[in-house]
Amino acid sequence: MKKKLNFTVSMTVLMLLLITVVPVFVNAMSSGPVEQSEESEQTKQTDATSLVAHYTFNQNLMDKTSNFEKGQVVGNRINKKDGGSISYAQGMRGKSVVFNGQSGVRLPDGLIKDNTYSVALWLNPKEITQFTTTFFGAQAKDQWISIVPKGPIGETMLWSGEKWYDAPTGLKIPTDQWSHLTITVNQGKVKVYVNGKKRFSDSGFPDVFTNDKAKFALGVNYWDAPFKGKMDDLQIYDSAITVEKIKHLAKGALKIKESAKDDIVVKLDNNDVSVHDPSVIKVNGKYYIFGSHLGVAKSEDLINWQQVGNGWSKDNPIIPNPEVELKEALEWPNPDAETTWAKDVIKLNDKYYLYFSTAHWESARSAIALATSNNIEGPYKYKGILLKKYENGEPSKELKGKPFDNSIHPGVIDPHLFFDAQGKLWMVYGSYSGGMYILEMNPNTGYPKPNQGYGKRIAGGNHAPMEGPHIRYNPQTEYYYLFLSFGTLAADGGYNIRVARSKNPDGPYFDPQGHNMTKFIKKDINGRNWNNAEPYGAKLIGNFVFTESNLGYLSPGHNTTYYDKQSGKMYIIFHTRFPGHGSIHQVRVHQMLMNSRGWPVITPHRYNGETVKAYSTKEVVGTYQYINHGHDIQATFGNPGGDINLSKKIELNADGSITGAVKGTWKLTGDYRVAITIDGETYHGAFLRQWDRGLKKNVMTFSALSDQGITIWGSQLPQK
Predict the structure, then answer these.
(1) Which domains does the chain have, with CATH numbers?
(2) What is the rounded CA–CA span in Å between residue 519 and residue 460?
(3) Which one is catalytic: 277, 338, 534, 632?
(4) Is 414 designated active site?
(5) Segment 544-554, tens digit of pLDDT
(6) CA-CA distance, 217 to 80, in Å (whole number)?
(7) Per-residue pLDDT tens over the stretch 177-207
(8) Which helix (H) or strand (E) holds 343?
């Protein structure tokens, strides 16, 4: 997982890096005129009785229900009483209130008093500024909700500062056009509608208002630029109003014309599971993946997955009542951790050992702790903290009282446990800070062997943007492969998966270019400048779209792997976000193949049961969607999808030539292996026939890696 960035961006932008806690699904990714359906009398009566405040803005700020006092004009902050002014103009339902970009309206306190409510309003922005609020409610400066036309990932969204929750809509409402927004919250189940269409649906939304007399405002909050434009017909309910009611409120909304960038909306299957930062273990014929926030799923074939449990909640079967059970580990960060981050499970002594991370976005402290269970699906009982990260300069127990230095000592999260070829148990871990570290573990206790401190650095340091280390031994090549995620996890954070290898579990690890992955400290390389990190590691996958198939990923990362000794197949499992789908993340499984140089390559399409075999020239020639993953991190911060490698068309010809968008040559170097030369650089890889979900056809693919650490992909287009 991504921790707090040491990067030259504003603190406000840093907030975007938070991840959704449980699976999110978008049921509609385009907006337009809404077909109206008849409301039943019962529905009308229910919605009418739950209406607690109605501001029509017909030349005043009065509440039509008379339940609350009228609103008050304020300046450019919710708590600035003086200096504001508003006016009125024609709106969608009579008159509307006009905001000049320097003022707001303070609404009465206590408009919402529990965790079930709805807010609906019309918006017509004159200008759209990132983070600017329209409807804002807060019971403290770090506990709030905000409806923003342009949130941290560039989309219109509902945003919460309590546990940092994003509810993106997949689009940005236009300027100089009326759009209708509705949010409904029902005991943590949240939905966001634009122009009557559901654009976001999820659970786990924080309870900000129960038992607190919260403050509310229009157009202003405590920090950001005020809203400039019009608002109309604000309605607040103490229930989650019905879809029929929402469509009725949005009647008359025009179609939103989305930009060309927003047109890249790849296909998703809403039945796929979401487990952030997955790690895998196979038990009794089933594959289990464990991730952040107690996300767990299982599968019998690595294709069809079933969610286990219900995320971070008291009744989760994995760790029931986790805030009590894990209290010690959660309280080490300051402020306290609100959940657990990346996990890893390994079987030791006929028990399952679950290693997990605790951290808080506003704390430099973090920890790796342990819980155990007799059953893979829990319940797990807390055992204790293994390692701690401290404030910079704070005395460290692991360093025998010496001060912690966050440029050379590790970020203590993202554990991965593995046995080496000689049967020794190791734990690799780390994030940013002083790099990736490895410790030898005691298999009898599950704890580190004594007198190792934090262990040995095997990659990174000086705040280089890498995390989520994972090591896999391959008995055919006799190499240990260190997988890392560079960048950061948000849709615009450029997360990408890289690899280096070593003959020893504790290194040294080298990439194909010959870089020692620990040189950041030895050469005093400034890792905060991400350009300095980009040359390191073989980049296996980053942001991409196969345009003909309409398939692609944003920020794929934090991977685990699985090697099947019986079949010889090797799989890589990771979470990823998707172009056009905001912060939604799902699990993906791809098969990996070894190239002739002993490096793994990730096959282009998700695993669907395929097995590699010998291929003839006739089978592999044809037109391909071609992608070069490059070697950059592809982070854009505030512009998700702003840096995507889009496919181009090339032809692999029977005479061994390559024509089209790139020129070069190709040749089979074995039953399925291939050498591809483009612009003088040779890529070594493999062919594999795979299922293209977008085209709904089996197609030939290739994946190849150069000695410069760059991956290219091809996905064949069927002949017409």
Answers:
(1) 38-254 (2.60.120.200), 281-560 (2.115.10.20), 617-716 (2.40.128.10)
(2) 7
(3) 277
(4) no
(5) 999 999 999 99
(6) 12
(7) 999 999 999 998 999 999 999 999 888 898 9
(8) strand 340-348
